[in-house]
Amino acid sequence: MYKEFDRTLRFEEKGETIEEVFNKMFSQIRNKLSYEIKDLIIRIEPKDIEVVEAKKVVFTERFLGLFFPRKRNLYKVKAMITVRVGVIEISQIKFEEIDDTPTLLKQFLKI
């Protein structure tokens, strides 16, 4: 009923700081896994992260094109994150069906 397995996910994110980029990646793990896996996810444990590509774009931003120049950074990261997933297989659970249709007397007394 309970099973664990490893899954590797690919992410591509960008942001103004390195922390923002990795926070976006890790916040998407559960959504991406629940889309792929139909069982009940109990535990997600990151095992490994491999940065495939990392870029830092530096550009100068100016107010009205002339005034107050400032340098801005944009980080772009592509990464492969390996996670260990613990799931409960819902298809393995056997449910007992109980027919509880109310009789005419029960329906009348309910009113």
UniProtKB/TrEMBL annotation:
Name this polypeptide is given: DUF4312 family protein
Pfam family, one: DUF4312
